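From the shared-data thread, chain only:
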Amino acid sequence: MNGVARHYFPGNNTPGGFFSYYHFILDQKEAKRIFVLKGGPGTGKSSLMKRIGETMLAEGYNVDFLHCSSASESLDGILMRDIGVAMVDGTAPHVIDPINPGAVDVIINLGDYWNESGISANRKTIIETNEKIGSIFAGVYHYLMAAESMYDNIARINSCVLSPSVINGIAMDIVHDEMGCEASRLHTGKVRKFFASAVTPEGLRSFLPGLINGYAKVYVITAEIGAGTAAITTKIAEAAASRGFDVEAFYCPLKPEEKLEHLLIPQLSLAVVTSNSYHGPGPVSNEQERIEIDLLGNVNKTDYSLLQDMVSDSSRRMEELIDQAVNYLKKAKEEHDYLESFYIPHMEFNKYDELQRGIEDRIRSYADN
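Structure, as tokens:
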């Protein structure tokens, strides 16, 4: 029987540049091993992780597939939390250095499998292409910064048309209904932070429907941008952690440190997610209890209509700016694919089968122990 696969993003393209939540993948004290892959573009890091993840999944182990925001079909890592093992891409922009080398962290240098002279023959073009990619990404982040400005304008208006007491009441009702009988515990639950969606060359990509699959109860909060959903999810997350429950928190790409969009509380089999025109929970499962909370119905229509034109205009401009960011992410990916062409012909991929088997055997030994 196969294990359970989950998909999400550990990092994202944001208005402030590439934003990483990699340090939440696996705590050093919980880890048996963290494999860190080092190597250039086209050296097979993603493919190697994907093959190992699929092998372990087929053997019944649960595997989290951590996707790359600059190419959503590629992987930046895999995680087998039940075993205490992770494997991550440790190259730029998510540079990861070993914290406890030998004891926890293992570096796998894929540079050992390339013909250096073949790659260095294209030294000038490789450097120029890398510089071009960096320049494109700088432009992408400026587009996202401008989109964030429009987002802030929408949120400013929408935040004024809902009463804080309504927002607080919704959060407290959920806490009471789901955790009211649970007293605060001596230890605080752990909060792990990631992204369920990302701005990618393929557009806005969301893994939310798969993440909530299997959860017994799902609260779906429908609202416009800035209408109070982050306040609700944050209060629920804080209440859960204070009661000793672990929380998985998924943030907004335009507000990676501020806006908590979705949260999962595995010990309660409880999910609280937000739904809007950019992401939603997907179709309803017969095995799930879903509770719909429509914040749109609490809006003061009189006050809202006064600034509706501004909200509509800001929304249109924000979408245009995000679309431009996506277009240039596509160009960056094209340049990255070109860069890979200087590495792929000079890799000894025939030796990867032995490398893969060795890593899989090590993972199995950690599982046995």
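The mean pLDDT is 92.
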